[in-house]
Amino acid sequence: MSDTPMQTDHATPSVVNNIDTPASIAAVPENDDVLVSSAASVGDWDGRWKHISKVLDRPGPFTEEGWTGGQETKDFLHACKILVIGAGGLGCEILKNLALSGFRDIHVIDMDTIDISNLNRQFLFRQADVGRPKATVAAEFVMKRVAGVNVTPFYGKIQDKDPDYYAQFQLVICGLDSIEARRWMNATLVGLVDEDSPESMKPLIDGGTEGFKGQARVILPTISSCYECSLDMFNKPTTFPICTIANTPRLPEHCIEWASVLEWPKVWGDVKYDTDNPEHITWLYNTALARAKQFNIQGVTYSLTQGVVKNIIPAIASTNAIIAGGLGLLEYGVCDRTTIFISLR
Ligand SMILES: [Zn+2]
Question: Which pathway is this protein engaged in (predicted)?
């Protein structure tokens, strides 16, 4: 992570595909020759958006009479300027989905650099990218893989940008892990709304994941309930009753809590344990393990000890993929509504 924000210019999108990436994220045309010849000029080829048409042109049970298919929505997708906030686990999925579902003018903000531990799920990054800004690398990767898509990265904080910057987008999608950042974004978008100018209302599509759980929802600033309205709905961090920890442990976590909350101060006094100090973690692990043996509890490991004392919730790639898929459906829903909205004006 760096405190120095940096605007990075991106290269012209290339149509050459990279071989070292999963085929599932490539926009694979029926015929590779078509990609090279026609995509070189317009970034499009015959049947390129067939998969989108399957979704947008199919009437559903609630389709109004006289509905003639989603051409307007498709045109809107191609023209829409969309902002993605966060290029991490969820952000990679969101960017991939947007690029493959017809969005062409994508902007992405992220203040982080790539860590080796990201690579198992943040699939737009490779080992050689470790240490580079996530936003920049994600933009380069998507443009290299998906013809005709422009991704503009910003390596920095959302707070570095002023309201005028946010006013240029039609849609904002958040894939953040910080509640503070979401609250800031929500407040900024609510603040942008001018009653006399319908375009000033920027729908915010918010996604979040935590282990196996996740959420995807739309906030229409000043129209629907906003982020601030629903802060109470968040999961509180898991805690265990002290009497269970002290007297009747049943889980390996209870033993670890016993070691860190009750035994550590007895033995170490005023010294606080440091969750990044391997000696401290080892001490907690051995103490918890002895406790677990005494109560015949299985499952105390070094990494669990570290996870419990650092309150680590493992990031799960499948959860990110599912939530990003949900966000994609919401994007389509919002775009559909937006185009109707625009056409009614
Ligand atoms: Zn509210």
Answer: Protein modification; protein neddylation
